[in-house]
Structure formats: structure tokens, C-alpha cells
Protein: Rho termination factor
Organism: Owenweeksia hongkongensis
Amino acid sequence: MAKNHGPSIKNDEQYEALRDEGYSKQKAARIANDPNSGKKGGKAENYEDRTKEELYDKAKEVGIGGRSKMTKAELIKALRNN
């Protein structure tokens, strides 16, 4: 049974699995709290196909700092590595 990480983590089991795989606490929490995580489908747009504004909004959503000065390529890199 997964440990209860409190109300800030919505899916404790997924959070623990991600931490065991080496994900940071921040990234594991973000994934475990996303209601769409774990769903299959592969229908997300590639980052390269999105506009800079869409990438900026996604970076804002996940809390990437310095995004206002980033180029589209830098936003893509930050989103992939965060």
C-alpha cells in the first residue's frame, strides 16, 4: 500500500513509483496530480508543432522560471527537461 503523502499529492502510488524511478519530488508530484496522467492515447501535439505562446503557457503551468525571455527552442528544452 502506498504511503499517504497528504492532500497535496493526488495519486500516492504513482508518486512513489515515479520517485523510485528517479524523478524529482516536483516532477513526480506534478505528474501524480495531473488527472490525465497514466491515460493512453499518444494524441498530444509535439512541442515543435505548438506555437511559442502555447509553449509559454505550458511552461507557466508547470512553473518554469525565466520563460518570458526564452526562445521557442529554449521553451521546448525546458519543458522536456523539467
The radius of gyration is 14 Å. The chain is about 50% helix and 0% strand. The helical segments are 12-20, 25-33, 52-62, 72-81. The mean pLDDT is 82.
